[in-house]
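Researcher: Next entry in the queue.
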Amino acid sequence: MASVAQEISLKGHLKRLFGFSKFKGEQEEVIKNILNGKDTFVIMPTGGGKSLCYQLPALMSEGTAIVVSPLIALMKNQVDVIRSFGTKDNIAHFLNSSLAKADIIKVKQELTEGKTKILYVAPESLSKEANVEFFKNINISFIAIDEAHCISEWGHDFRPEYRRIRELINEIGRVPIIALTATATPKVQLDIMKNLGIPDATVFKASFNRPNLYYEVRSKIEAPKQIIKYIRKNQGKSGIIYCLSRKQTEALASTLQANGIPALPYHAGLEKEIRSKTQDQFLMEDIDVIVATIAFGMGIDKPDVRFVMHYDIPKSLEGYYQETGRSGRDGGEGRCIAFYSEADIEKLEKFLKGKPVAEQEINKQLIQEVVTFAESSVCRRKTLLHYFGEVYETENCGNCDNCTNPKKKFEGQDDVVLLLEAIIEMKEKFKANHVVNVLTGTLTSFIKQYKHHELEIFGKGSEDDKDEKFWNAVVRQAHVAGFLSKDIENYGLLKVTKAGREFIETPVSFMLTKDHDFENPDDDDEEAIIAGGGGQAGGALDQTLYGMLKDLVKKIAHKNKLPPYVIFQETSLAEMTINYPTTLDEMAKVSGVGPGKAQRYGKPFADLIAKYVKDNEIERPQDLIVKSTINKSGLKVFLIHNIDRKLSLEDIADAKGLSMKQLISELEAIVSAGTRVNISHYIDEVIDDDRQEEIIEYFRESHSDSVTDALKKLGEDEYDEEEVRLMRIKFISEFGN
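Model: Structure for this entry, 737 residues:
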């Protein structure tokens, strides 16, 4: 199967160029689509690996890929990251207004000579007539539009200069286009495709779930004190704290500084040079914390931000998702803590006064979605993903405050039925607050106007001290369960879905929880939850060595005037403390390093680790393996020879003192390297034909070669890991090698 061979080739390039052994999510399918010359539209959350989607095909393709980006301040950092994986600086360049004339001449010369594989360019630079003429005469592999939501007037960060990109591409000449964004509603998605002239682009929409992010909402009572306490407990970790006003960023940054925390404010009112310097200090880890308005953030290329706090609750869940997404981009720890008070919500609603009524209504609904997220005691992840139209099936994510510290549940079947019936009785033409007022028997002028106080259901929900907060919780949980839909563009009117009507007809048990009350916190809410959250490598991590490696990274980074993560990311350092690589070859095998980066930066790290291992008499894992097994090359020859003789795998394993698991791992390595191995004689003895066909069929149709994914799909009770791994070896061997 050609696609399997291509998959193996792509993984080889991924390991050689970037030091990673596997792709994230749909990265591989996106890259194949680009390499096949097709227009591509990628909607992938922050931290999902969007950059690699154009970087890898750019390095593999003939010619130069042009990446259009609005982030002039970050282009140098992005170029530095690409250069760090190779040995030559001319592999990547940027072209924008920050370059001197001599630098522009040099960049264009290296582009003409075909030495540059990736060129980052600002839309303003792309639109210059001289540059358009220049681009007509170089070999362009494709054009990538990063932060593509900027092209849409409906997007949350519209840039007028982005609207001209299609016109400029037409002048330069037709090439494949890849548009990338971290978030786009269906309306924005259509607008992007229309304006870029790519109606038939293949769309890849990744899950919005970020499993490593821990979500928590706290009462805003004594928030500065809570923040100082948290940062002191997490000394040395990078974080961003968002505030709604410029004044608040400066006040909070001053409070942190007075308490010995290296922090600086960042907002649009500061001089450009100060903003640029502050950003550089944050990237270089000279300061740990930035206190910012939303002016700071889009495209921040710092993978090891360990926490994002919202001192003021954001205006929309889309904004909240974007901002929290800047933490834990390397897959490591990312804690998202928002402080909530009803006073902040009132303040946000006051800001809307003076705007057109329709705009006020829509914005009020967006604010109410934030209130729902904050006050609800349902899994934060489930609520957040539901907002983006994604269903999260797991009951307890184990990585948010509501799941690590759940409230008591109670039977709510009758309450949900009453709510749904009330909405239907009011012809599905009213918002949640009106429905709740009817159920609680609260007489308002609006209720009198529609004569809803004459309905039989009026006040029917006020029994047993059930109040407004109680019924708001029922509305929210019925909505997340899929019994209700809420049309934000139509002022948030509640509609009962097909599933909701079926629930009325045949009610089943439905467990509810009360919402949080942040103004009057109970014992459960009083103490902020510190448990949970994705973290760095577990107990195996050597903390002493990790600290030494962090210091060395900072030293080398300052010497090269680069951010530390460009040298090595924290996740790579963590792996070094577990495997103790002492040579450049071993260093190249560390995830996120690869041969180019090992060659460029690896020696001082390998030397430090070698000295540490010797001084502390550490037995490295690979040393133990060398002592207990024979030469790998000899083992490979032995395995292939005896499989050709059709010996049973148990006999072959016994002959070399291997367990069956170890033998299967060796065979997986052999077929992944491109060598064909025929183990059908053994498989036919131990796996029934129909089971073989079902597993082969799965791997034919699946985009993933993950054994875990296969077991989930095939059924963990029906199939075991060993037989799936054996069939995967057979599949790759027959169709890929």
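Model: Residues 228 and 688 are 62 Å apart (CA to CA).
Researcher: Noted, moving on.
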